[in-house]
Amino acid sequence: MLMLNEEMIKELYSMKECIEDVEKAFGYGYGNKTQTPIRMSVPHEKFKAETLYMPSYIEPENYTAIKVVSIFPHNAKEGRPVLQGVILLTDTNTGEHVAVMNASCLTVLRTGASSGVATKYLARKDSKTCALLGCGAQAIGQIQAVMAVADLEHIILFNRTIERAQAFKKELHSLYPAWSGTISIQADPNIAVSKADIVICSTKSSTPLFDGSFLKEGAHINAIGSYQPHMQEVDVQTLIRSNKIVVDTMEGTLHEAGDLLVPHNEGLWSTDSIYGEIGEIICGEKAGREEPSEITLYKSVGIGYLDTMVASAVYKKAISEGRGENFTL
After folding, report:
1. What's the pLDDT score for residue 81?
2. DSSP class of 213
3. What's 2-106+305-326's CATH class?
4. Which of 16, 132, 140, 186 is 20 to 30 A from 108, alpha carbon to alpha carbon?
5. Separation CA 133–CA 139 (nearest Å)
6. Ramachandran region of residue 214, left (φ > 0), alpha (ψ -120 to 50) or beta?
7. Are 138 and 204 in contact (CB under 8 A)?
């Protein structure tokens, strides 16, 4: 069995490769060539924590995987990671468990790549300014993905604590030393949104981050932070103004996306207004952006088969390049 840690994965696998693989995986999903059972959560009431078990299978790739993620909030006080995850990859030709790898960086990569695919199909080709609302754990993957598909000239950062935005700004400068664009920090999310061609929502907020009336004509929004029915990053005005609302999967969105479920349940907006899944656009069943003036919204709560897709891609590349550490159970 092969073991791959975070450093190895980052050296092996680029965001550009991940976007290509995630786009292919969405096509498989739309073609009913994947299986993703509902994730199981095991609560640990003693610590107000939980462990999530997320299996998935991609038939054309001949791999299945299970991602196990533990979320222990009290770890933060002890200097330990709050979120810890691993992926076990299995070859479905033989049933052999072939690899175990770090899940945290792969999750950031595939979540970012999902937004990258959506941006490719839904954002204006001449998008130059991106507003990032929330500079937390998923933010770096989101910016990397948008940078991979759009020729950005300016990034605007908003975060609840300005110190985190300042630290993230330094991180971006070190990651893209040759990039000639500019990065600014904005304390008012409405101002940030009003200047942006692409808006990224990457927080765990339970209340909308901005007033949708401030969105530019022709803007595209990637809303990826909220993943539970009570969480909201975008308001009903954003939904009403959006000409196309595209989701990663209808099933997941209608169960978990508070951005859509809260206004639907309050009778302010209907989920019937959802345009379709990103897989339909990738496979040519529906059009992506059609007019420069359209406002488009991509809502993602995550789907397990993306983990299997990127884990199998990393494994195959590691084998071809002789990377990773072999061990026997």
Report:
1. 84
2. G
3. alpha beta
4. 186
5. 9
6. alpha
7. no
| Tokens found for residue 184 | 């600014």
Token pair of 278 as six digits: 């990103």
- Residue 301 structure tokens: 């709560």
Which residues, in sequence order, are CB contacts of 51 under 8 Å at separation 6+?
41, 42, 44, 68, 69, 70, 71
Class of the CATH domain delimited by 114-299: alpha beta
- In this predicted structure, the answer to whether residue 211 has a pLDDT above a threshold of 90 is yes
Q: Residue 138 in 3-state DSSP?
A: coil
The residues spanned by each domain of the chain are 2-106+305-326, 114-299
Give residue-wise pLDDT tens across range 219-260. Answer: 999 999 988 899 999 999 999 999 999 999 999 999 999 999
Whether 286 is catalytic:
no
**Assessment of whether the complete model's pTM goes beyond 0.85:** yes
State the Cα–Cα distance between residues 233 and 249, nearest whole angstrom: 18
- 204-240 burial: b if 16+ Cβ within 10 Å, else e: ebeebbbebebbbebbbbbbbbbeebebbbbbbbbbe
Q: Residue 122: what pLDDT?
A: 98
Strand (E) or helix (H) holding 70 = strand 63-71
How many whole angstroms separate alpha carbon 109 and alpha carbon 310?
9
How much is the CA Rg of the chain, to the nearest whole Å? 19
90, 65 Cβ separation under 8 angstroms: yes
* Inter-residue contact 150 to 127 (CB < 8 Å): yes
Vertex 194 angle, CA 193 and 198, to 5°? 50
Task: Give the Cα separation of 316 and 66 in Å (integer).
Answer: 17
In the chain, DSSP finds a helix count (H) and a strand count (E) of 11, 16
Instruction: Taking the CA atoms of 13, 130, 216 and 150 in sequence, report the sign of the dihedral they define.
Output: negative
User: How remote is the C-alpha of 274 from its chain's centroid?
Assistant: 19
Catalytic residue among 16, 67, 128, 204: 67
Q: Please list the residues that pair with 247 across neighbouring strands.
A: 277, 299
Q: What is the C-alpha to C-alpha distance for residues 117 and 207, in angstroms, rounded to an integer? A: 26
Task: Compare 104 and 247 and report the one with higher pLDDT.
Answer: 247
